[in-house]
Every structure is written in structure tokens, then in C-alpha cells.
Write a structure and sequence with these properties.
10 helices; mainly alpha; two-stranded antiparallel ribbon; 2 domains; Recoverin, domain 1
């Protein structure tokens, strides 16, 4: 069985497209190749790698959503270029870039809106990922309370969905929401 390998086009091009230096890109590429010798990562491998950061919980659902956010071509694998573009946005992008990326992560069905079901799935996935060390301890209705608070702040026109603009405006206006966004970034 032959293994298909992928090699990125050129570091100069990636350097121009990201907020990383050539040296940083070389280091990131070495790490990526170490974990994914073929130069691409499939979802199962991504889940396995991501789960190592959350040994006391089940990170598989959140890792699935995160994988889909990085897989910008929706082909079932993440090339180094896709990975580093997302990482650049999350680590060094503008606030708006980070919020747009996060919105797309939460917009599970990619319809341009975040609905209650999507937000509930994301919140539950985060709690599952944190596992038994979630503080305060998770009670049955806590995810629903988080989703209700999210929609109360975000859904300005009360139509049951949150648009990208509603999301960005509400996050920028609400310091507490910004801290929540940083918390979710930390589980990225």
C-alpha cells in the first residue's frame, strides 16, 4: 500500500499569507510532519492528537468540530497549509478575524447562522472534553443555561439565530463574553 504524501507549496507564500515568520513555519512544519508523516491529517488522527490534551474527558466531539473548521476544503483531511492558516488566525489574527473563525466553528451546518441546537452541541462538547474536572461540576441544565445566556446577549433581533454580525458586535460589546471567547480559544 502506498502512502500519498503532501508537501506544502512554499514557505515564502505561507509567510505572506500568515502572521508567522519563515523560521516559525519551519518549526511548525517539523512538528506537523512528526505527527503526520504523510503531510496531511485525517479526522481520526486529529482526534487522537487532540485527545492527548484532555486526558480526563472525551474530546472527540469537540475535536470533530475543530477538525471541520480547519478542513477548509471539506475533503476529510487537513493539509499543513490549512492548519497553519487557522493557527495564524487564532494566535495572531485581528480580533475580528478570531471572532469570524470562532463563528464558523460554532456554525456547524455552515448555513451562516448559529442556532440553539448548534450552540448546545458546542457547549456539551466542551463540557464532555473537560470531563470530570469541570468546575463547577456539571449539572443537567448547565449547558442549556449557557446557551440561553448566549442567545440573550447575541440574538439581538430575537429571531432564534445569531448572525456573524450579531456575534461580532455582541462579543466586542461584552467584556464577559470576550473572556468566554478566550476560554473557548484555550480549548482550541
Amino acid at each position: 500500500m502506498t502512502m500519498v504524501c503532501h508537501r506544502p507549496e512554499g514557505l515564502e507564500q505561507l509567510e505572506a499569507q500568515t502572521n508567522f515568520t519563515k523560521r516559525e513555519l519551519q518549526i511548525l512544519y517539523r512538528g506537523f510532519k512528526n505527527e503526520c508523516p504523510s503531510g496531511v491529517v485525517n479526522e481520526e488522527t486529529f482526534k487522537h492528537i487532540y485527545a492527548q490534551f484532555f486526558p480526563h474527558g472525551d474530546a472527540s466531539t469537540y475535536a470533530h468540530y475543530l477538525f471541520n473548521a480547519f478542513d477548509t476544503t471539506s475533503n476529510g483531511s487537513i493539509k499543513f497549509e490549512e492548519f497553519v492558516m487557522g493557527l495564524s488566525t487564532l494566535l495572531r489574527g485581528t480580533l475580528r478575524d478570531k471572532l469570524e473563525w470562532t463563528f464558523h466553528l460554532y456554525d456547524i451546518n455552515n448555513d451562516g447562522y448559529i442556532n440553539r441546537e448548534e450552540m448546545t452541541e458546542i457547549v456539551r462538547a466542551i463540557y464532555d472534553m473537560m470531563g470530570k474536572y469541570t468546575y463547577p461540576a456539571l449539572k443537567g441544565d448547565v449547558p442549556k443555561q449557557h446557551v440561553d445566556a448566549f442567545f440573550q446577549k447575541m440574538d439581538k433581533n430575537k429571531n432564534g439565530v445569531v448572525t456573524l454580525e450579531e456575534f461580532i458586535v455582541a462579543c466586542q460589546e461584552d467584556e464577559m463574553m470576550m473572556r468566554s471567547m478566550q476560554l473557548f480559544e484555550n480549548v482550541m
